[in-house]
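Dear colleagues,

As part of the handover before I leave the project, I'm documenting each prediction I ran so the next person doesn't have to rerun anything. This entry is a single chain, and its sequence is reproduced below.
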Amino acid sequence: MTETLPVRRALLSVSDKTGIVAFARFLAERGAEILSTGGTAAAIRAAGIPVKDVSEHTGFPEILDGRVKTLLPQVHGGLLGRRDDAAHAAQMAAHGIAPIDLVAVNLYPFEATVAKGAGFEDCIENIDIGGPAMIRSAAKNHAHVVVVTEAAQLEEVRAEIEASGGTSLALRRRLAQRAYARTAAYDAAISTWFAGQLGEEFPPRLALSGEIAQTLRYGENPHQRAAFYRDGSVRFGIATARQVQGKELSYNNLNDTDAAFECVAEFDRPAIVIVKHANPCGVAEGESLAAAFEAALRCDPVSAFGGIVAANRRLDAAAAARITEIFTEVVIAPDAEEAALAIFARKKNLRLLLTGGLPDPAAPGMVVRSVAGGFLAQSRDAGRIDPAALRVVTRRAPTAAEMADLLFAFRVCKHVKSNAIVYAKGGATVGIGAGQMSRVDSARIAAWKSGEAARASGSDVPLAQGSVVASDAFFPFADGLQAAAAAGATAVIQPGGSVRDAEVIAAADAAGLAMVFTGMRHFRH
């Protein structure tokens, strides 16, 4: 097998024409015959570069509105024929099939067509058939053919031809892998869209794909390798973010930043979320982002050190000045004012991400997690409580102020690892208990942290005194609720549904608490 092969004949047919004219000129200047179709041929011809229409090469016209133009033996035989096989060479000669040494094809823009909300028939017409077929033929015969599927690869091929007069087997193999990955991702996008059209949330075979966005320094720990892939979905967040400044993002940075931004999007008023190790350690709404940050920080200033800060508004100078007073790993927001950017720029290592928008907490979507031998898939937790649907189960109903805080706390609970307990007061968290094996321990930890936060600010009165409490799932026993009452909570929001609900309600009544049931659980493992 010859390692380096010249390009004597190339077929160029691209929807994204970035760089294709210059590449065609480069090949033509080295004596290659250029074959092309449609708009690509027109662009090459307009630049004064000799080009032969594929229909002229095959002796067969384009038919069926262009659906059939390359699905012919003269094309696929030219791609699949082995140059070092005498029988192949004889058959190609007998049928007048000329070898094709390079194919540059990028596919009809199906993903972009779907993303802009096009109708069913328009999406169908943007499913490429001939393109994937040529890509797969060329990739299979990569021993003799080089396949280009992205505009960025043109320069890589050009550089190698300039250096050595042809393409190396190593390059052809690498581009063949990229080619199969591209057609697999393309088919995955089509099958996912089709499943949606059929109303199949979980089709019999689920195709997943992603495009690498960043190779990371390491994973959760230095001995683990990691990378960040974008899945092509249209959802504002770390996948759409522009990193304005700061060091390279790590695996843990990205995971925590995603958790923070998804949480802050829950709130309509100016809000700040501070996250540490994928759990909120402070969440607050305020009249301004600066005020919200102050309230969020008060909840757990110790954990906030080295944390992630997410905002649901354009960052202003006042917020930037306050945020940069403590060590922060990442700040993420939809946008930032120029004055805020100047303030953040003083902290060279702080990563600042601007996403261009907020994710919709109520939008449908899928969450996937790997397990040994497979993966789990579930719909995104897009549940929101309708205040009118809450059921008051105690003798005392919540006051209007308590109800506002209950709804706020339950939204926070949705983003805290289970078992989750959240104390809140005045539109801010004042104690958070997360990830414990028993709910009563989460209630006690959250209360203890509220006391520690109060002492840090010079007060002996725990922040949880006079607060409300939210639980992501029902209290299985009265002890968790009693711990919350002991911490100073005056009202409770929880899903309900325990066999011991009556016992828990009785304990709430005995403590003078108001309690409402949501009927909706927010476990987050």
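Residues 245 and 351 are 5 Å apart (CA to CA). The mean pLDDT is 92.

All the best with the project,
I.
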